[in-house]
Amino acid sequence: MKEITEQSVTITTEKARQMRRNIISMLGQAGSGHTGGSLSASDIVACLYFWEMNIDPKNPGWEARDRFVLSKGHAAPVLYAALAEKGFFPQDYLNRLRKLGSPLQGHPDMRKLPGVEASTGSLGQGISWAVGMALAGKMDQKPYRVYALLGDGEIEEGMVWEASMAAAHYKLDNLTAFIDNNGLQIDGRVEEVMSPLPIPDKFRAFGWEVLEIDGHDHRQIMQALNTARTVQNRPTAVIAHTIKGKGCSFMENRAEWHGVAPKPDEVEKALAELS
Amino acid sequence: MDKQATRDAYGKALVELGQLHDNIVVLDADLSKSTKTADFAKAFPERFINAGIAEQNMVGMAAGLAAAGKVVFASSFAIFATGRAFEQVRNSLAYANLNVKICATHSGITVGEDGGSHQSVEDIAVMRSIPNLSVIVPADGVSTRLALFRLYEQPGPVYLRLGRPALPLLYKDDTDFQIGRGIELRQGRDATVIACGGMVSLALEACRILAEEGIQVSLVDMHTIKPLDQDLIIRKAKETGAILTVEEHNIIGGLGGAVCEAVSENYPIPVKRMGIEDVFGQSGKPDELMQYYGLTVDKIVQNIRLLLKKK
Ligand SMILES: Cc1ncc(C[n+]2csc(CCOP(=O)(O)OP(=O)(O)O)c2C)c(N)n1
Ligand SMILES: [Mg+2]
């Protein structure tokens, strides 16, 4: 059980704010990309990288490291912001998001950028990778933990439930999956497009430990991570209630901010809100 | 020259068809704004089904709808429609020979900034290898619309490959567009270019440049990759003695592969395949990527010159 201190919350909160600023700037520079889902996941990813995970930016291939799989790969900017902030690569890489020849591909490419654990972007596939990594950890009796982040639209993919079945079947208590439950996918609200509800009951029925939190409350995120570490013989799903576009008032809860980058004036406005 | 993306033409033609035939049903998998099926969804909400982010189930449902008498158009990005749902296309649609048209957009590298994970360079090859399935790659908006009308009249499973970027309009509404019949856009005796999709307009430009030097090149828009217009290919092989194929797809298994199969078995002559050279794509602006992977007018001109030396 890790202690959740005032100081640790201050640190991750500041990191999340910095990450959000970088997300806005890099997307502004790129001129395209996925803004809403990067911002909704910033607090979860900040707590993972700056409180929870045992990783070493100097040694990204370290065998005993914890692993994070961004299953909702379109939110690449949130991963890049965390990795840069952590020191996996120079901050100025962020200026080349989505540009020809850049290690920062539109969707994460593990062969191009240190710290990226899985090449994702095709929804549904990342959670299966995470299950595989957790299985390897069990086989080799390594103590590392595996974390995955999925979208609430992404879980409409049948593959997610195949992976969930396998994770419970193999009793992967070293696996924690966050569901970024921002209520939106591309074509609209998840319950209107193709309802995955009720999400907690589904994971519970598949044999997972299920926690429900406010995905922007760092104490709750840390508390969930603490709990997940104590759960035995089954994986943990953390259903994180979030707001798509969180942190930029004019983007919040708006489906149209799923796959567009802010224009220069919008970048300015957003950065002012995040200062 | 006016321009239109084939996906835009698709969205509009679907609405036109929907007005004419009330047995048409359209499916999408949470990409209706990008694939342009949103136009149909707006016009005929009761005949539009959003499968959510579940391409395999979309294709499976399409099979059921078709088996129950509907004419089904199902859309997603090319990578997901042909990749994630491959085996449903194979077993539920093609094996059962059902009347479903998989109309996939965002094919090839002109997807652009989303990068290699989203750029399908193998879809023609995998779809072409499935029995019963026709494969169609229109070169502009007008022929996309004509293809769609023809497809409605002709029952059976189809893969229609559409793109993201705006392309020059090459055809008129009264063009004689027949599934399985390549269109000869230029006649020349020195060599033949066979192209599909967005590469046709680039090839046309290349042929014009060479014509100024007195090199006369035939150009075929091979919009139907399957069933392939073998007669036309063999005739052009005999008339011109050299063929260049051009496609926004892996040089393995696509248009180039199909043409080589036809030529080598029937009338072997030099063939050069232009396309993506068996590598994955990456992020970048569509135009930059076309330059980077060598899909340009200049490269077509260059390759025709090289080919002429081999005759
Ligand atoms: C297999 C697959 N199908 C479709 C897409 C296109 N796509 C990208 S993001 C997205 C919506 C994702 O919604 P959600 O999972 O809720 O993500 P978030 O709201 O967190 O951005 C879709 C359909 C994809 N990347 N992969
Ligand atoms: Mg969502």
Termini gap of chain A? 33 Å
Are there runs of chain B of 5+ residues with pLDDT below 50, and where?
none
What count of structural domains of chain B? 2
How would you classify the helix and strand content of chain B by structural class? Answer: alpha/beta
What CATH architecture label of chain A applies?
Answer: 3-Layer(aba) Sandwich
Order of helices and strands of chain A: HHHEHHEHEHHEHEH
Discrete helix count of chain B: 13
How are helices and strands ordered from N to C of chain B?
EHEHHEHEHHEHEHEEEEHEEHEHEHH
Task: Describe the 3D structure.
- The complex is a heterodimer of chains A (275) and B (311).
- Chain A is α/β, with parallel strands linked by helices and 275 residues long.
- Chain A contains 10 helices and 5 strands; from the N terminus they run H-H-H-E-H-H-E-H-E-H-H-E-H-E-H.
- Chain A has a single domain, classed as Rossmann fold (3-Layer(aba) Sandwich), CATH 3.40.50.
- Chain A has helices at 6-30, 36-40, 42-52, 76-86, 125-139, 158-169, 190-194, 199-205, 218-230, 264-273; strands spanning 67-70, 146-151, 175-181, 209-214, 236-241.
- In chain A, helix 9 links the parallel strand 4 and strand 5.
- In chain A, helix 3 runs parallel beside helix 4 (76-86) and helix 5 runs parallel beside helix 6.
- Chain A starts with 5 loop residues before the first helix and ends with a helix.
- Chain B has 2 domains: 3-168, 3-Layer(aba) Sandwich (Rossmann fold); 183-310, Rossmann fold, CATH 3.40.50.
- Chain B has helices at 6-20, 32-35, 38-43, 55-67, 78-84, 86-95, 123-128, 141-153, 199-212, 230-240, 255-266, 286-292, 297-310; strands spanning 3-5, 24-28, 48-50, 71-75, 100-104, 134-136, 158-161, 166-168, 183-186, 191-195, 217-221, 224-226, 243-250, 271-276.
- In chain B, the strands form 3 sheets. A 7-stranded mixed beta sheet of chain B has the order 3-2-4-5-7-6-12, with helices on both faces.
- In chain B, strand 13 (243-250), helix 11 and strand 14 form a beta-alpha-beta unit.
- In chain B, helix 1 (6-20) packs parallel to helix 8 (141-153).
- The model of chain B has no long low-confidence stretch (mean pLDDT 98).
- At the A-B interface, loops of A face helix 2, helix 5 and helix 12 of B.
- Bound molecules: thiamine diphosphate and magnesium ion.
- Magnesium ion is lined by residues 151-153, 182, 184-185 of chain A.
